[in-house]
Structures are given as structure tokens and as C-alpha cells.
Amino acid sequence: MRLGPIRMYLIMGADNIQAIFRHSKQLSFEFMQLRIAQKVKGLPASDAARLGLDDSGTGPTPLSNIRDDERIWSKLHTIYLKNLTERSAVDFLTGKFVLEFSKQLQSVPWQSETMGLYRFLQDYQFKASTTTLVGPRVLESNLKFADNFWDYDAAFMTLMQGMPRIMRRRGWAARDACLEATKAWLAAASRGSEAVDKKDSDLEWDENFGHRLVRERNAALVDYGISFEGRAAMHMGLIWAINANAIPMTAYMLIEMVREPVLLHRVRGEVHSALVPGTKPGSALVDIDIGKLVSLPLLNSIYNECLRLHSSIPISRRLREDIEIDGYTLKASNFLLAPSWLSHINEEVWTHSGHPASEFWAERFLQKDMRRVKLGDYCPYGGGAVICPGRFFAKHEILAAVAMIVTIFDMEFVRYSRLDGRPADRGPGMERAECRGIVSLDRDVIVTFRKRLIV
């Protein structure tokens, strides 16, 4: 198939998708990162050209004749692995998020309120997640940052497709506002970090750059010659990546529980074993045993089921050389596209005990025969050498947020609504789903929140 000047092979089927992951050395992903960075994040063309010079891949062994000091993709990948996959780093990030989300939930000014569940998370979880990643100052210096972010997120795919400004004014304006706020934060963070004592330069978290990941990533981009504007665009992309995926997934899980009160009760009882009331000054409202939380069977089944139904990633690669998949020779310099969602709703794989693949079933991943599902049948975080390095922290944040909310609040379903609050006749659906990661909600659920006594 052709998309304008691009010739693309459409890949379907679990075995063929697994073949893509096995051929990581013959495929590249960086072109897609650059396209998104330019189209959606505002990466200057000169920086895109600079980054595009490195075609050596992300692994430790270069796939082309590039000097080690010019291998920016490998350097960034190493930083991601260090800060997002090592257990100590993930534990720190999760603990920081739990503390920041506790602060946000403690700041809720009411005992009972009726409002949109997704809207609630877009405010309180967004502030906690953003502070965990980049520190508090991007929010403190721009009180409309969250509102602008969600307007930007709503326009993400149309910006990606090159929609002219005149046809998507609100989305472009929100993108520009977020980028300017990120530039202001980056300038202040850079000034602040210059005054930091050298012995504190390897802190896991500081008020200027937030998590060490962001500080190390920024330094690598500086060393590589990426401009201030380019670095701001890439940092804004990092803020988008965590929030635009973790927060919708938290919402999908909670909505299923709100729609089925018995399920909410079961989950609340299960997570209770992993929660301990905070007792130390400055501690979280509830402390979480993350190791225990991520092993809870029902909670994990709901998490995986919501990922299956609501993640839609474009597994896209460029062919470095000819490869063979399913008896067909795919030619170098062309592109591959494998839409994950089609595998996730394959009735032959997922229908079980009268529960069709298209419907949510909380216990689907508790069934023993689910262990036989192939990677190509279920790949919400991609696969191969470029599988999402943030998948561990993302899962921990989502499960921690769900656990804290069901512990701290009673929630009662009121009605479905459109995102602007108008009544709707259904909840979030996949009718207009975009292939971009976790599918953004197209509807909200109005619930009555009531604070619970934590015991």
C-alpha cells in the first residue's frame, strides 16, 4: 500500500508481528520519532536533520559506521534503560508519584462532589505525574498548563497529519502554549542547575529538572548539539508520553469498576492488603507495597484487559535491508505497519467462556489458557529492541493511582457524558480510536465522589 510517497507493507497476524520484533537489527524506528517530534512537538528542522544523521540504531552495537560520540539514539536509550527499567529507579519513581498524588488528593477541597471521573484525573493525576517527572515549576509558573496540555492532546493526531493551523486553531494554539511553557521551565531549570553543588548533581530528583532521567537526557542532547528550542520540544514530548497514556488507562480501569459496583468492592478488598496508612511526617496518605500491589491477580487482570481493549499502537518500522516474512520478501527502504489493536480483538484468540473479544471481562487474564497467548497477539507496549522502556513505571503509576482512589473515595455512577459535560448515551468507545498508544477517551463518566475513612 502507499501513503503519499511512502510505500508501506501492512503486517497482520501474531506470527508475522513477532517476526517484526525478531528482525530488530534489520529495521529502524527513529524515523517515526523524528516525524512525531517535528509535526507534533515543534522540533526545529535543523535539529531533526542533526538527529537524522545517526542511523546506527539504539543497541550497544552500531548498525552503521557512526562514531560512538555521535550515537545519540543509543545514548538516549541507555539513559532510558537506566532510569526506567532498573528496579531501584522504578521503585523511586513510583514512591515519588505516590507521595505527589497523595498531596494532590489531600488538596481536594470537598468531602463529596459529582463530576467527571476522567476530568478529575486530568487535573489531580496530571499534576502528580508531571511533578514526578519534571518537578513542580512548569505547573507553578503556568497555571493553565494542564488545560492547554489536554487541548493539545486532543489535537495530537490531526497535528501529526499536518492539519493546517486555520483548520485546527485551538489545537495549534494549545501546542504552542505548552511549548512556550516548557521553554520557560527549561530555561529556569538550566539556570537553577548551574547553581547546584556538584556533589548533588546525581540526585535522583531535584526541584529544577525533576527526575534524573530528564536531567541526563537534557545533558546528552546539549552535548550532541541540539538547540534550546529542540530540547524543549523533546522534553514536552516526554511529558506528553507519560500523561497521555497513564491517565487514560487509569480512567478506563476505574470506569469499569464504577460501572460494576461489585467489581469495585472486590478490587478495594484486594488492594487493601498492599496499602499501609502513612505514619511518618511528610509520608504519603497511604503507603503502598508496590511489589505486593503489582502481583494482585484481579487488579492485574483488569489492567491487562483494559490495555488489550484500549491500546492501539502503530508498530511501524523502516526496512534497513530486505527481509522475509511469511514467504514474502519485503524490500529495503520501505516501511512496515502492524496495527496492534486488530490482534487485541481477534475473536479466535480472545473469546472465552461466552465472553467475546470485543467486550470487557475482568477475569479474562485469570484464565489458565491465557498463558498461551503469543506476543504478537498482545503487544500494548510494542516489542523488539524498541519496546517501550517506560512500561514498568507506567504500570506502577496506573496501579498505584487506581489503588489510592478506590481506597480514599467511594464512587457512584451517575451518567455518561461528553467531554464538555453534556449528557451522552454511552461511555468511552473505540468508534473513533486513533492509533497512538492508549486511546484517548471520547466520553467521560459522571460519578459522585465521597471521601472514605481510611482504616
Termini separation: 59 Å
Assign a percent range to the helix content: 40-55%
Shape: globular
Number of helical runs? 18
CA radius of gyration is 22 Å
Overall mean pLDDT = 92
Query: How would a textbook summarize the main sheet?
Result: 5 strands, mixed
Structural class of the secondary elements? Answer: alpha+beta
Question: In what order do the strands lie side by side in the largest sheet?
Answer: 1-2-13-10-3
Instruction: Indicate the proportion of strand residues.
Output: 5-15%
Total beta-strand segments: 16
- Poorly predicted runs are none
What would your notes on this structure say?
With about 450 residues, this protein is of the alpha+beta class. The protein has helices at about 15-20, 30-40, 45-50, 70-85, 85-105, 115-135, 135-140, 145-155, 155-160, 170-195, 210-225, 230-260, 260-270, 290-295, 295-310, 340-345, 345-350, 390-410; strands at about 1-5, 5-10, 25-30, 110-115, 205, 210, 275, 285-290, 310, 315-320, 325, 330, 335-340, 410-415, 435-440, 445-450. The protein has a 5-stranded mixed β-sheet with strand order 1-2-13-10-3. Strands 4-16-14 form a 3-stranded antiparallel β-sheet. Strand 7 (about 275) and strand 8 (about 285-290) form a beta hairpin.
Summarize the helices and strands and which ones pair or pack.
Blueprint: E1 2-3, E2 6-10, H1 14-22, E3 27-28, H2 30-39, H3 45-52, H4 72-84, H5 87-106, E4 112-116, H6 117-134, H7 137-140, H8 145-154, H9 156-160, H10 169-194, E5 205-206, E6 210-211, H11 212-224, H12 228-259, H13 261-272, E7 275-277, E8 286-288, H14 290-293, H15 297-310, E9 311-312, E10 314-319, E11 323-325, E12 328-330, E13 335-339, H16 340-344, H17 347-350, H18 391-408, E14 409-417, E15 437-438, E16 444-451
Parallel strand pairs: 2-13
Antiparallel strand pairs: 1-2, 3-10, 4-16, 5-6, 7-8, 9-15, 10-13, 11-12, 14-16
